[in-house]
Amino acid sequence: SKAMCDAADATSFLPSEVTSAASHIAFDADSDSPVEGLPDEIHGLVYCPGTINLKPFHRIKEEEFLHDYYVNFLGAVRVLQAALPGMKKAGNSSVVLFSTVAVGTGLGFHASIASAKGAVEGLVRSLACEWSPRIRVNGVAPSLTDTPLAATLLGSEDKREVSEARHPLKRIGTAQEVAALAELLLSDNAASVTGQMLRPDGGLSSLRPL
Q1: Which of 43, 93, 153, 174 is the most core-located residue (most Cβ within 10 A)?
Q2: Alpha-carbon distance 205 to 210, whole Å?
Q3: Per DSSP, what are the bridge partners of residue 135?
Q4: C-alpha–C-alpha distance, residues 137 and 179, integer Å
Q5: Which pLDDT belongs to residue 2?
Q6: What is the pTM of this model?
């Protein structure tokens, strides 16, 4: 079985053949409550809570840095530690964590979330090495994606056009596209892939159009 750990219903973006074999587990990533409801055997795990707290650096309070760190990084740590026995029991397993384009590309007002997700990317590479060859660990680092979390940034046609124009592909990605990459990383089609970050960011992190 596959475990999807999220603060919202991430499974709604996945195809039915995946969701029929998946367990969506909601929990409070910003607390010390235990992770409950994990299957005995875990063949794949996706941890995909996220936060968007965009402010000038001098206006970000320490508790806001801590909130982003707890939800994005320490929440993943807690879930992975709880899930490790089930992944070992499964024999072979795959983990997918989520980062952001802002880790590899400096973006203003992203200091808190980029710092937290930078820790996630470090965790991906460290665990990919430590847990090989039985457990693969990879990450997905999207740019701005059309989800409810991004509604305030895409709430009007003007805002959407400005955001699209920043990307070489001149479009905003969808949750379904990002979920498809997570599905790929969980599958046997990516059996040789570990310690990698896939970047569905419209080219923002690597291209500079003329």
Answers
A1: 93
A2: 15
A3: 93
A4: 16
A5: 52
A6: 0.90
